[in-house]
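Example record used in the benchmark description.
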Amino acid sequence: MRQLNIKDYYMGIRGLLKEEVKIDYSPDEVKEVYKCKNDIHYFLKTYVKVIDVDKGKVPFVLRDYQSDFIDVINNNDRIIGLQSRQSGKTIGTCGYILHYIIFNQYKNVAILANKGRTARGILTKIKNMYKSLPVWLQQGVSEWNKGSITLGNHTRIEAAATTDDSIRGDACALLYIDETAFIDNNKWESFWASTYPTISSSKEAKIIMSSTPKGMNHFYKLYTDGENKKNGFVTYTVLWDKVPGRDEAWKDKTIAEIGLQKFQQEFECMFLGSAGTLISGTKLQNLVFIDPEEKTYDNKFSIYEYPDEKRKYVLFADFGEGNSGDYTTAQVIDVTELPWKQVAVYRDNELLYKEASALLNKLGNYYNNCLIIGEANTIGLAILDSLNDDFEYENLFYGDILENNRNVDYFGIKMTKRSKRIGNSYLKEYIEADSLVICDFNTIGELSSYIKVKNSYEAEEGKTDDLVTPLALFSYFMQNKELVEDWLDSDTYNKREKTLQAIEDNLLPIGFFCDGSGLHNMEDDEEWDGEYF
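Model output (structure tokens):
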């Protein structure tokens, strides 16, 4: 039996061979090393131990779907795992990474997660697996820290949170991103832009992503594009019923404890919107995003249908200050016929408001000198005035509107509490009745987190609703008989009338409420702060 002294172990940790220690291999050990290198499943089930919550250190018994997922990783370089909660999604990937670092040289591995603690926890699992190996299967340790390890074969693992500079500058051969869906949606784009170059320099580099769903965010798009073979990722899905011991009785008990919606997201891996969304969860599930025909203006303007001189468009805009906070957004809607269609979207939180009028002028002219309607907030009034005065845009909405019991004239429409309620109400009906087709990924994402807060709707905390505001503005405009009749041609107006009639024939009356003293028309009740539906 091989005898080692305490000095042969890294930092005196028994079972952890030091880098510079040389050992003699028996003929049987040499055969086993080669067998383990060529068969990861044999390696894991024969020599690796894991920590069981109840039993402590136990042999690593792979479930069938864990073995299948390891094969998917072995045979592909871009992998997305959509996996049920508590299905062992992370431990299987840890086993793959353990095998990778032992049987490769001069490789950098990065483990990233939405929280640094989560990433370091994954690294700890790998470290515990490594320590369970016989010393003749180890590579020797030169570094063994809380957030990184380096082996004697010059392979290194680093664990970090998903920030812009998590692994900037490091050439990465294997990148594992756990809980991908839980990375802040607003931070994902910049994180991915800084992280992707770390693996793009190698033709053999692998990216592994795994997560349960969290709404219709970046992970939803990556997974869906992978399913549709649009982005090079291979998908692998594990639902609750693949886990041993889970049956219908377990399902019923779990639903009773956590609720149906939570069960559908966490265990059935459904991409659901937030609770209490304006648009029904069923409808959100059925909204389908498509890739734009073109992205221009530094990828801020997505074109889904190019302008056609025979068609009529309306552009609705909402304005931010250009300080990386609220977005300046524009929605271009084709109102020629039913269903109305979203044909282009602009979204930018760095556009200075002084530049916004020039941009609107270009977008409006591109879409047949279309009618432009902007939200007339403080910034919006200045932008719309500039669009009229400096660029002499000919088709800019100018309202003569009853506001606070007096007629006021200005460019655009103000989104008051009342107009927002009306706009939201009709936006819901237009989308759910398939009278307004939404195809933009970011718009669908915002709709999936546009939730009820007190007596109104707004973005869930940490999310944005700047793309929803122009749609609410559109819906408010399209339901207003006087506005549509004055600004759109008679043919479009007649089609709009038929749309409203078809919707209202299938709905309870919209625009009235009862407080016990009779029926009230909300058009005449400016102070009412209740709900529409």
